[in-house]
Amino acid sequence: MSIQPSLFDLPPAPRRTTPQGFAYQPDLIGPAEERDLVRRFEGLDFKPYEHLGYLGNRRVASFGWRRDDSGQMIETGEPIPDFLCPLLDKVAAFTGLARESFRHALVTEYPPGAGIGWHRDRPPAVAIAGVSLVSPCSFRLRRKAGDTWDRATIEAQPRSAYLMSGPARSDWQHSIPPVEALRYSVTFRTMRAPRPSY
User: Which stretches does the entry tag as region Disordered (predicted)?
Assistant: First the structure.
């Protein structure tokens, strides 16, 4: 009698699907626009990424909103800089969302070997759009589905953009494995309006 498992005894393979609410656009901007953005990043006041006392292996510059020491998103009073506005216009056109609805911009610098672990952006972020610059990355998504995972991987090329909204933002986690070369990203988030206090 063979002890080798039959095909019917093997665990199910992960299902691969594109999340509802996820969109991808190659070549959102041209090479000259990319070079201009990267040149302007040199003047930003980058800080090490920190969240709840954890220091990440990347640097960030945040505008409009930021996370406070407790992890909550708060308005900074520092507006999205003018040099990012043409990019924001293209992101708004790609997503179909109103330009004014994007209340947060984050420029992230990934040195070689830097990545992001599995996570899900929390409220008040509603929709998240990102633009990948300089070098590619594997943008991975996963969602628990019973005993296995639904998974998707998008190879985000330089100058491309993605959108996570609806279930893609609320139900799926995402991560980026360590990058092989210097990479920048610009992430724009729409924010749910704060409840009025009386």
Answer: 1-23
Mark 21-54 as b/e (b = at least 16 C-beta within 10 Å): bbbbbeebbeeebbeebeeebeebeeeebeeeee
Dihedral pair phi/psi, residue 23, rounded to 5°: -140, 150
Least confident of 28-37, 43-52, 79-88, 157-166: 43-52
Residues 61-102 have pLDDT tens digits of: 989 876 666 666 666 667 899 999 999 999 999 999 999 999
Assign domain 15-191 one CATH number from 3.40.50.2300, 3.40.50.720, 3.30.360.10, 2.60.120.590.
2.60.120.590
Distance CA 182, CA 88 (A): 22
Contact 154, 139 (CB under 8 A): yes
User: Can you give the pTM of this predicted structure?
Assistant: 0.83
What is the share, in percent, of the chain residues with pLDDT greater than 90?
69
Give me the residue label for tokens 């308005």. Answer: 75
**DSSP state string for 162-175:** EEE-THHHHT-EEE
